[in-house]
Amino acid sequence: MIWEQRWHPLREEWVIVAAHRQDRPWVGETLPAGAGAAVPAHDPACSFCPGNTRVSGKRNPPYRGVFVFDNDHPCVGEDAPADLEAPSGLNRNRPATGVARVVCYTPRHDLSLALLAEQQVDELLEMLGAQYAELAGRAGIEHVLVFENRGEVVGVSNPHPHCQIYATNFVFKTIAVEREACRRHFHETGRVLFQDILEAEAQDGRRILFENDSAIAFVPYFARYAYEVFVAPKAAHPSLATLSGAERRDLARVLKRVLVRFDNLWRAPFPYVMPLHQAPADGGDASGFHFHVEFHPPLRRKNLLKYLAGPEIGGGNFLSDTCPEEKAAELRALSDLHYRAAEAAP
Description:
Elements: E1 4-8, E2 13-17, E3 67-70, E4 98-104, H1 118-136, E5 143-150, E6 162-168, H2 173-189, H3 193-204, E7 208-211, E8 215-218, E9 229-233, H4 245-266, E10 272-277, E11 292-295, E12 299-301, E13 304-305, H5 310-315, E14 318-320, H6 324-332, H7 339-344
Parallel strand pairs: 2-14
Antiparallel strand pairs: 1-2, 3-4, 4-6, 5-6, 5-10, 7-8, 8-9, 9-11, 10-11, 12-13
């Protein structure tokens, strides 16, 4: 048995690693087994499919590629009331202004990011970079958060392949902490913090999944979730918008390989939360910030969630039930051919 703490330099917190707990007896709740019902290519009841009417009453165009629209149930709004009732004492409030958008990856209801062709993934990344540049340039926008919630276990409300964009008048806390850690490291050492993380991963080698000329995927040394993966350009960029075409295509290739192996792990759609870590747009010092994509999968075993309980919610520190080196080896051993493509082959 090994009890270990590992420092997470981007979040500036310790992660407790107790991998032997993965095999402890479990009589609690598990997720139902099975791949579920077949999914149609077009669902007449889906508000994201081409030609269908959304809850706002607007009808989707017959789109053929990436489709972006303003969220019908936004978490922030450009018309947020400015004359809020002032609370008393320590209580404070302010308007939550901004823009919320939905980005549909494809008109096909039955696909996913893992099942898109590399070119389609590249086109999606190009669109997300353009969205970041446009929204970050707006007055009053301090942060552009792009993320995908995949799977019912993470609370996705519509299974149509899509992600969301929150462009807000505040910086989300995780990114604010990361920016400050990167800024401090850069000014103290003259080095980019994420570059030092990449160098440490290269020296160890066990957690790197794969890489090409300008992009890399790895399970970080300080991973909190069992199958947590970072995907990043090797060169430091503040956001997706500043990648060259070649860098973006390399990133798409690596991203695709990660997604396929996730699904191949248990031959089923793999749930995750995928945030894009991009520099805030508030004009603050983003020295040393390094754009990257993070995957936070909630399952630690097939049909078994990693529950956030006493240590995480009560204590504020993450307890990992698995070893990052072992999980990286599992993912590396999987095929690059998606299991659905293999099943369809003659």
